[in-house]
Amino acid sequence: xxxxxxxxxxxxxxxxxxxxxxxxxxxxxxxxxxxxxxxxxxxxxxxxxxxxxxxxxxxxxxxxxxxxxxxxxxxxxxxxxxxxxxxxxxxxxxxxxxxxxxxxxxxxxxxxxxxxxxxxxxxxxxxxxxxxxxxxxxxxxxxxxxxxxxxxxxxxxxxxxxxxxxxxxxxxxxxxxxxxxxxxxxxxxxxxxxxxxxxxxxxxxxxxxxxxxxxxxxxxxxxxxxxxxxxxxxxxxxxxxxxxxxxxxxxxxxxxxxxxxxxxxxxxxx
Length: 270
Fold this sequence. Notes:
single chain, 270 residues, alpha+beta, Creatine Amidinohydrolase, four-stranded antiparallel sheet, 4 helices, globular
């Protein structure tokens, strides 16, 4: 069943609070990984750290067991490097200085999901690469700001794409944000580009994972032979940011934050 065929669910305040607990755990994991990312560390080590944190919290990794074209996903996090946009598989690869590393993490706590991603710059990179990471992050911020009751999915998409158009970045079409709750991927699909019509009206209680993905070159991507890793066809660098939010009467509330992570700007440089 595709996202477009699923029923959109609205969450109560008590359910949003449960999602906030899962979101805080995901923020804790990403905070910890931001401290561990350095030249020489393997992506598998980062995955192990994330798995241990989630297990100690009494939670379950959201990604383990997600069906794939070749096999279910077996890891706690996704680690995508340089031209890899999303769904990179952790393993023996060692992170090197000058790389761009995107980490996507998800956790299920008491039956509710939290989902977030950040892109990290390891050491020195060209100015255009650093700007890509910063502006992809900014597009997430303006996309969240547009997610107000009475607005539409199209308003979120327009805000995100507007940042990309300022710089000529590629914006992925095949992948985007999604509804979230007791399932990691719920309806609706949240595009990062303008489409025909305004899209679904945003209602109080709708929870979304908003996740812009930009590239320095073409928006064309392909899935590698492992069946998971999505990479740019032209080899251009990519960046990926994501937060889980709830649309509340006074506006959007970010759920994947904690007391130490009050700003989305944290963690862009290592």
